[in-house]
């Protein structure tokens, strides 16, 4: 009986459930919308586009137009029970803060006099438009913009000091800086912390793949066929940008079918078959024993005829036979030994003549797998008087079996899903109830409610009434689980008071923890601790974090966090000009990515200091990468830890992947490299360039070194302030070419890798640059912690997260910057353990 009508109803129910989920507040009352042109994480630009600072740091504060939810007809509950939806109480907005009269009296006139001439409209300087601010309330909605202004004013960077624009007095500048501090960016770290609010978010593609792997035991990646996930704050797991596109409904339904069809497929016992191979399909050594026209195999010296990598489908008995002939010379017939996997099975005396070849066979028990089958001629002989050779010929090999096969082991997927089966004492419905309750518990990542199990059982009843067997009948309710919002979204309960704070449940905490470190669902150890209420106990939590970081699933942290922090995904799309870099190829590109991932995994697995990301005396390389780096005594394609002794490299800044993604196709880019360090190492990103600043000319038009060209570019006062921060950092890496190879000349002139930072720090070359970065360890701690907690929470940090970030940095420093100490500080923090009902402006 086909279940197509039921599945159509199920799809309609899923659509209605998702629409209802949006309508009841699961996503901060933002209805689903299809992204107009999502930017995949894999092709994110090496440097950020020329957008406003607000667009770079957070979502727009202006109201957003959304598409209406797709309407769907929901069938009666008796036919297909709808997926249950947790209702959220209505939210009452808090009264807005009282406006500070100083804003209109002093702040607005300051902006109009000193700032708006450059910072207005679509071509605003630095991408920061200030002409739309007319009230303090608008300023509160863009605190990060104002924080950047505060920093620039306090440092004397803005207005640009070397221009003819009027400059504010010392008192005017101090007043605005103090007002921003007191009104917009100051946070009282002595009182209760604001944990913020994470927008409900769906599983991204990596999380979906990993979750169905651990939930259902499948080893393929169905989400690779999903639309690319949008990126926010540098990561593709941010709730604010993980939009829901209508096509995802179709993809989820198709993926659920494919996952369950694969996971619930019971292995069939192998059937006995006979396979026959003629002389043309047999490999011989020496090759001279085989002639081509006609194809004939005849040995006059020791040799073997073989089937390479023959697949034995199951453990069992097999009959292996060959058809051969021989000539009796020296009083003996040829001797042939049959071998499997280089082990002798039986020897035969071949007495058949060439005109009447015969079969010789043996029956033997063999394990499953690929093996080489050989028939070896072992007793060569030459009659030197008559000039005759003892010959052995073979023209066919046959393998028949398996007979009496050993039943294949039950797949992991069956063990995970069919946790109960009908038996003499257990009815099919009782088994289905137990099975579905366990499956829904793991899929929803929380205890399942009785009414939810009842609704799933009604789908099982529909299938069984149509005559479906047990294993097929359970697929329908399992599909309902896999397309339920409770599976596809990470749902957390809101506090009843919109302005209140709620400590998330132990199951919600276990889910946050597992998706942070593993990008997948909690395992049974986490589920059990959550059920007992013990997961948050300090000793237990510390032990679990260290266990999780050493688990193979922690590789997801390098695949999903490190690959985006270090922009490794961009490496897939880069195409350096092979005219300038003939050594560039896929092998080198893949080796660069593997180096960075392996380095990150080593720090995580061995609980090393996060400062080793800045500098170290080792890296990971294979022969291809070692040749590119000029490292000796590294052979073979396997990656291994390699000592660095010349001071050229160390840490992530001097890795080939970093140097390549921060270069142009035909030359290096000190600006991109300096900007990358400011953004990803020091956490002090520069504003975007002014829209009317020209690019450097193509490489063939450059005269002198790139550094000399950059000096001319920096002569523009509008560019000088930011370039004074970026360029010296990039110049310190000029000894590395556009794909990270070492060089001493640029354009046939000596390279000057020295630099002076605005704070007066001097360096010459990458080794001294790394020492300068180590000297700024607190900036790196804060930058790295901000990126890691952003990834862990799935939201960007706000001004009120300052206190928590201070605590995390202090905890990291106090524990010798061990990676696990940083993770523990994050998972113990209020933003990770709590949830506010309404997001603070």
Structural class: alpha+beta
Q: How many strand elements?
A: 23
Number of helices: 29
Instruction: Give me the Rg, rounded.
Output: 34 Å
Strand content: 5-15%
User: What is the helical fraction, as a range of percent?
Assistant: 25-40%
Low-confidence stretches: 1-9, 15-94
What gap, in angstroms, lies between the N and C termini?
Answer: 56 Å
Q: Major β-sheet, in short?
A: 6 strands, antiparallel
Estimate the global geometry from the Cα principal axes: flat
Mean pLDDT: 86
How are the SSEs placed, and which strands pair?
Layout: H1 4-23, H2 53-57, H3 101-114, H4 136-140, H5 143-154, H6 170-185, E1 201-202, H7 205-216, H8 247-263, E2 273-278, E3 283-285, E4 290-291, E5 296-299, E6 303-312, E7 316-326, E8 335-340, E9 343-349, E10 358-366, E11 369-377, E12 382-383, E13 388-389, E14 392-403, H9 412-417, H10 428-444, H11 450-465, H12 470-473, H13 475-482, H14 485-488, E15 489-490, E16 501-503, H15 506-517, H16 524-532, H17 538-550, H18 555-565, H19 586-605, E17 618-621, H20 623-629, E18 640-643, H21 656-661, H22 670-680, H23 706-713, H24 717-731, E19 745-746, E20 749-750, E21 754-756, E22 762-764, H25 766-775, H26 777-793, H27 802-814, H28 819-827, H29 830-833, E23 834-836
Helix pairs in contact: 5-6, 8-13, 10-11, 10-13, 11-13, 15-16, 18-19, 22-24, 26-27, 27-28
């Amino acid at each position: 009986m086909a279940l197509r009508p039921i599945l159509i109803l199920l799809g309609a129910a899923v659509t209605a459930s998702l629409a209802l989920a949006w309508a009841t507040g699961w996503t901060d009352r933002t209805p689903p919308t299809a992204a107009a042109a999502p930017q995949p994480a894999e092709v994110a630009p090496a440097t950020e586009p020329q957008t406003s600072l607000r667009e770079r740091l957070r979502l727009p504060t202006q109201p957003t137009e959304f598409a209406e939810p797709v309407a769907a007809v929901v069938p009666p509950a008796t036919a297909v029970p709808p997926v249950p939806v947790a209702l959220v109480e209505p939210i009452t907005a808090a009264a807005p803060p009282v406006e500070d009269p100083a804003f209109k009296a002093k702040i607005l006139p300051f902006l109009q006099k000193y700032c708006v001439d450059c910072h207005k409209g679509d071509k605003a300087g630095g991408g920061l438009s200030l002409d739309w601010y007319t009230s303090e309330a608008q300023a509160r909605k863009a605190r990060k913009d104002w924080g950047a202004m505060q920093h620039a004013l306090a440092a004397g960077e803005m207005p640009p000091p070397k221009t003819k624009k009027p400059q504010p007095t010392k008192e005017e500048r101090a007043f605005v800086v103090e007002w921003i501090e007191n009104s917009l960016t100051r946070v009282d770290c002595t009182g209760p912390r604001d944990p913020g609010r994470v927008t409900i978010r769906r599983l991204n593609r990596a999380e979906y793949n990993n979750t169905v792997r651990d939930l259902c035991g499948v080893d393929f990646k169905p989400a690779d066929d999903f639309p690319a996930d949008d990126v926010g704050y540098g990561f593709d797991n941010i709730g604010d940008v993980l939009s829901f596109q209508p096509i995802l409904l179709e993809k989820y339904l198709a993926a659920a079918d494919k996952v369950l069809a694969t996971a619930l497929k019971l292995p069939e016992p192998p059937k006995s078959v006979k396979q026959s191979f003629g002389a043309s399909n047999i490999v011989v050594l020496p090759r001279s024993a085989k002639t081509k026209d006609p194809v004939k195999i005849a040995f006059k010296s020791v040799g073997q005829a073989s089937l390479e990598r023959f697949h034995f489908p199951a453990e069992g008995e097999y009959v292996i036979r060959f058809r051969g002939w021989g000539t009796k010379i020296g009083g003996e017939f040829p001797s042939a030994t049959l071998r499997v996997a280089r082990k002798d099975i039986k020897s035969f005396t071949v007495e058949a003549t060439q005109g009447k070849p015969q079969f010789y066979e043996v029956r033997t028990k063999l394990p499953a797998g690929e093996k080489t089958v050989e028939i070896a001629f072992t007793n060569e002989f030459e009659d030197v008087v008559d000039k005759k050779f003892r010959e052995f010929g073979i023209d066919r090999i046959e393998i028949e079996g398996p007979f009496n096969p050993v039943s294949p082991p039950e797949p992991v997927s069956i063990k995970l899903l069919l946790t109960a089966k009908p038996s003499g004492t257990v009815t099919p419905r009782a088994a289905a109830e137990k099975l579905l309750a366990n499956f829904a518990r793991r899929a929803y990542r929380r205890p399942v409610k009785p009414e939810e199990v009842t609704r799933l059982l009604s789908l099982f009843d529909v299938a069984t009434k149509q005559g479906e067997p047990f294993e097929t009948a359970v697929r329908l309710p399992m599909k309902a689980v896999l397309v339920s919002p409770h599976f596809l979204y990470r749902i957390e309960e809101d506090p009843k008071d919109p302005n209140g704070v709620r400590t998330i449940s132990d199951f919600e905490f276990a889910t946050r923890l597992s998706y942070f470190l593993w990008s997948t669902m909690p395992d049974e150890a986490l589920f059990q601790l959550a059920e007992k209420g013990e997961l948050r106990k300090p000793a237990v939590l510390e032990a679990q974090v260290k266990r999780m970081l050493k688990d193979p699933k922690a590789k997801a942290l390098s695949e999903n966090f490190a690959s985006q922090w270090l922009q490794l995904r961009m490496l897939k799309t880069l195409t350096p000009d092979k005219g300038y870099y003939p050594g560039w190829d896929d092998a080198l590109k893949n080796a660069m990515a593997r180096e960075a991932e392996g380095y990150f995994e080593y720090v995580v697995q061995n609980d090393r200091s996060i400062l080793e990301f800045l500098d170290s005396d080792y890296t990971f390389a294979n022969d291809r990468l070692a040749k590119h780096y000029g490292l000796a005594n590294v052979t073979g394609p396997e990656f291994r830890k390699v000592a660095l002794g010349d001071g050229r490299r160390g840490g992530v800044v001097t890795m080939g992947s970093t140097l390549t993604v921060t270069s142009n196709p035909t030359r290096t880019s000190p600006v991109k490299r300096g900007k990358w360090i400011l953004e990803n190492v020091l956490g002090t990103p520069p504003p975007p360039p002014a829209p009317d600043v020209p690019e450097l000319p193509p490489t063939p038009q450059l005269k002198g070194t790139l550094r000399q060209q950059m000096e001319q570019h920096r002569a523009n006062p509008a560019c000088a302030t930011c370039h004074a921060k970026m360029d010296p950092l990039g110049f310190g890496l000029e000894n590395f070419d556009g794909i990270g190879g070492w060089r001493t000349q640029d354009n046939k002139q000596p390279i000057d890798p020295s630099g002076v930072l605005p704070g007066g720090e001097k360096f010459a070359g990458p080794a001294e640059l790394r020492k300068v970065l180590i000297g700024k360890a607190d900036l790196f701690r804060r930058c790295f912690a901000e990126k890691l907690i952003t990834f862990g929470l799935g939201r960007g940090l706000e001004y009120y997260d300052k206190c928590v970030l201070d605590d995390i940095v202090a905890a990291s420093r106090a524990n010798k910057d061990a990676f696990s100490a940083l993770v523990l500080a994050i998972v113990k923090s209020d933003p990770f353990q709590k949830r506010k009902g309404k997001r603070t402006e």
